[in-house]
Amino acid sequence: MNEQTEVASTAVTIPAEKLQQAVDIVRRMREEIRRALIGQQAVVDQVLATLLAGGHVLIEGVPGLGKTLLVKALAKTFAGEFTRIQFTPDLMPADVMGHSIFDMRNQTFTVRKGPVFTHLLLADEINRAPAKTQSSLLEVMQERQVTIEGETHSLSAPFMVLATQNPLENEGTYPLPEAQLDRFLVKVRIDYPSEAEELAMLALVTGNRIGDGLDVQPVASLIKPETVVALQQLVARIRVDEAVANYAVRLVRATRDWPGIAIGAGPRGTIALVRVARAMALMAGRDFITPDDIKSACLPVLRHRIAISPESELDGLNTDHLLQALIEHIAAPRA
Amino acid sequence: MRLDQLQLELRPRPNAQALDLGMALLRVDGVQVYLAFLALWLPLLLLAAAAIFVFPDYGGFAPLVVWWLRPLLERAPLYVLSRNVFGEKISWRQAVRAWPSLLRGGWFRLLTWWRFFLPNRGLYQPIWLLEGLRGKAAADRRRIIGRDGGQAAYWFGLACAHFELILQLGFIAFIGFFLSEEHAINPFAFFWDIDNNANTLWNNLSLLICYGVAVAIIAPMYTACCFTLYLNRRATLEAWDVELMLRQLTPPPSSATPSSAIVAGLLPLFLLGMLLHSPASHGNESALACEKPDYLVAQQGQRSEAHNETQQQLREQLDAVYQHEDLLGYRCVQTWVLKNQEKKKKKSKEKIDAPDLSALAAFLKVLLIALGIGLLAWLLYRYREYMPRWFIPERRFVATEVSGMDIRPESLPDDICAEVNRLWAAGQQRAALALLYRATISRLVNEYHVRIGRGATEQDCVRYAERAATQQQISADCLRLCKEVTTHWLNGAYGQRWLHSETLVALLHRWQQQFEPASAELGS
After folding, report:
1. What are phi and psi of B39, to 5 degrees?
2. Could you tell me if B431 lies within 8 Å of chain A, comparing CB atoms?
3. Do B231 and B86 contact (CB within 8 A), yes or no?
4. Which family is annotated (chain A) (predicted)?
């Protein structure tokens, strides 16, 4: 049994008290979000992990399952700005990015920033917008800056896009290009709440209230946006053992020749896997990642990076089925 | 029921003749019978067709609904037939008008559980319709009527159902020939093309129409034949032929005075004659004037002269009675016989020297049985996973490898704690903890029979152990120790955070207490 080395040479040991402080913050953020959003714990964890890893989330689920509420609650926990764009077929890139307008009084052009200048951006039903609007947003997600009339404007940190796709309606939509999908760090599936969760939601909504909406009033602002950036830096220092990194690589490489998968995940998939696993390790109170973290991150990170073959689709399989089988087959690293 | 007005020649007949009589009856009254049925059947078909248009998603149920209601519709043609056999001419309009009142009795039975199991329902319809029996009386009657004719009606009903099916398929194929693609070979392909969603509505409609036409042809035949089966059964049970004969013997009321004594005298003779010539011996022939057999001529001998005119009249009447084919005491039977039967018999005798194949037959029999058993065994083995768990006892799961780790007991050193100590002292901390972790998993799997999957990670193993503890498969102490070993292994292997030597010593001590006795017992 050989001594293992760390993959990330820059990773240094995180002081225990600093780690504990970070873990406490994350734990309290989860609890605060839970005050507004009942159930969907896995979704909350995955979105929180993506925020800590500095990525973007693609959310898929039928309307009315609390996507907006989740984003609003998350923004409120760190006192961040939140904007929501409802994507429509006539939405233009300038409507998202912003544009310059001519000021008649001063005889100058002034820049009017678009809704993308925020901390958390909820891009609702992104597949309804035309390709050029989608690609401009995807570019901003990658570059984290916007160029308007030749002038570059950096986005505030943290910046996170949560794009939703409605899986029920396909008419008049522009599905996101496969090649662009890996701009999203994870793809989260929101399912219907359990019976107990729905009951609890009912009690919360109908208890001495007017209207039928859940709101984020009870959610407290715990930290500032800068603290989130500090947490993201801390996550980047989480230790990754070589054996675990090997495991991640083996998993991603296995998707490329796995039966039933037509197109496997690229190297960005491996990087994303480790990034999310790091955030999950921090949420679990550890300063190192384990194969379990990789395994937990596997589905949300890889499900939108692979394409299943038509035969598998005809067999009623989806990406999650194939990835589950793959995870079961690839042995986790051991001594 | 006025038997004297019966338009049929009733006598006990074999079932085949009774069915043939039904067809003959239909030939006479076919127009009214068919019209009576169609007058109800067509509106029902139209309603079903409308339902297909209104509920296209449930169009496949339309033929089922009309099939379901059909027994009630069969009462109209039965009404026509039952009245016509007694000389009362009923038109189809009268039958349709009377139909709502004919529905009483047996309708619930015919629309519920009976509907599925009784193709011979036609035999029992007259019990409700003509005899008007209900409840227990009807049940007793059905039992008696069905004792002999039930089987025949049953098989006849099945045959009719097959006729309907064949006709329906024929019509479908006929339509399919015209609607299918130019080079299509299978005329049914058009209807069975499940991807052709656009035609589902017309497919369902076509299927309904084809079924409707097939039933429109067959149903009146079925009703008529079942009715004559019923009449035949009653004629046998109640000796209608005798009753009719007696009625014919009864003189008209105007000349009743002199003949009453004659009838009283004739009756014992007649009954004696009936006993001597049982109707059960009837063949499948009609009355034929053929020559009297010699033995009968010899038995009768010569008659003496009649004493008086009364006796002469009596003799003439008796002779007239005995002229009836049932009382002749003999019967002419015409059958078809092969002309060359003799030759064939000879030929078969000539071939008697053929080789004896009984041994080969026996061998083939054994071979076939063996093949059958083999096929059954293979099928049971091939689809064993679909067998209920109680049928095939669940095999105890013993993993030999978990995530690439060899966890077989023989792959571990005899004294695990000593080996861990040795590795630790040699500075191979990772190897020491890895061995301890591997040994822990091995003990869980091999000694406590905890089910652990092949690709299980550390947290998965902990979850399996927790489940085993919940099921009291392992103790709480054991679970705690497993968790502790896992945590130390994870901290060391992936976090480079090694435990203190003292902690290791304490851990090994607890490990030895927990796992070594079990191992020793296993070894002994």
Report:
1. -60, -25
2. yes
3. no
4. Belongs to the MoxR family.
A29 or B274: which leads in pLDDT: A29
Q: How many CB pairs under 8 A join A and B?
A: 71
Report the pLDDT value the prediction gives residue A215, as an integer from 0 to 100.
66
CATH number of A238-334: 1.10.8.80
Residue type, A166: N
Query: Mind telling me how many Å the CA of B495 is from chain A's nearest CA?
Result: 5
Which of B405, B453, B496 faces A334 most closely, judged by CB atoms?
B405
Q: Are B77 and B95 in contact (CB under 8 A)?
A: yes
Please write the tens of the pLDDT for every residue from A248-288.
Answer: 898 899 888 888 888 888 888 899 999 999 999 988 888 88
What's the token pair of residue B318? 């008796």
B424 in contact with A at a CB cutoff of 8 Å? no
| Beta strand B401-402 pairing with B405-406 | antiparallel
DSSP string, A260-292: TEEE---HHHHHHHHHHHHHHHHHTT-SB--HH
Contact between chains at B493 and A289 (C-beta distance less than 8 A): no
Give tens-digit pLDDT for B509-523: 888 888 776 555 544
Contacts of B325 (CB under 8 A, 6+ apart): B286, B287, B331
Domain boundaries, chain B: 3-244, 401-515
CATH of domain A16-221: 3.40.50.300
**A67-76, A196-205, B404-413: which range is least confident on average?**
A196-205
Question: Contact, A116 vs A156, CB < 8 A?
Answer: no
CB atoms within 10 A of CB A330: 22
Per the model's pLDDT, the better-predicted residue between B391 and B238 turns out to be: B238
At B164, the amino acid letter reads E
Distance from chain centroid for Cα B303 = 63
Q: Which tokens is A295 given?
A: 């395994």
Q: Which residues of B69-91 are buried (b: 16+ CB within 10 A; e: fewer)?
A: bbbbbbbbbbbbbbbbbeeeebe
Please report the pLDDT score of residue B86 as a whole number: 79
- A67-77 and A41-53 are packed helices; what angle lies between their axes, rounded to 10 degrees? 50
C-alpha A333/C-alpha B393 separation (Å) is 34
* Residues B477 and B484 sit within 8 Å (Cβ to Cβ): no
C-alpha–C-alpha distance, residues B295 and B415, integer Å: 112
Cα–Cα distance for residue pair A94/A116, rounded to 1 Å:
10
CA distance, residue B451 to nearest chain A CA (Å) = 15
Among A107-121, B283-297, B439-453, whose mean pLDDT is lowest? B283-297
- Is residue B398 predicted with pLDDT exceeding 70? no
Rounded distance between C-alpha atoms, residue B150 and residue A320, angstroms: 60
**Nearest chain A residue (CA) to B404:** A331
8 Å CB contact of B434 and A1:
yes
Task: Output the CA torsion A122→A124→A127→A128 (10° steps).
Answer: -140
Length of chain A: 335
Q: Which amino acid would we find at residue B236?
A: T
Model ipTM?
A: 0.71
Q: Where are the domains of chain A?
A: 16-221, 238-334
- Separation of alpha carbons A257 and B148, rounded Å: 72
Kindly write down the DSSP assignment for every residue of B147-158, as one continuous string: HHHHHHHHHHHH
For the segment A132-143, the average pLDDT, to the nearest whole number, is 84
| Residue in chain B lying closest to A243 (CA) | B494
Coil, strand, or helix at residue B230? helix
Buried b (16+ CB within 10 A) or exposed e, A87-102: beeebebebbbbeeee
Q: Residue A239 gets which letter from DSSP?
A: B
Kindly give the pairing relationship between strand A82-86 and strand A120-124.
parallel
Give the span between the Cα atoms of A216 and A80, in whole angstroms: 13
For B277-286, the pLDDT digits (tens) are 444 444 444 4
Tokens for A42, please give them: 């896995």
- The residue among A300, A237, A244, A313 whose CA lies nearest residue A269 is A300
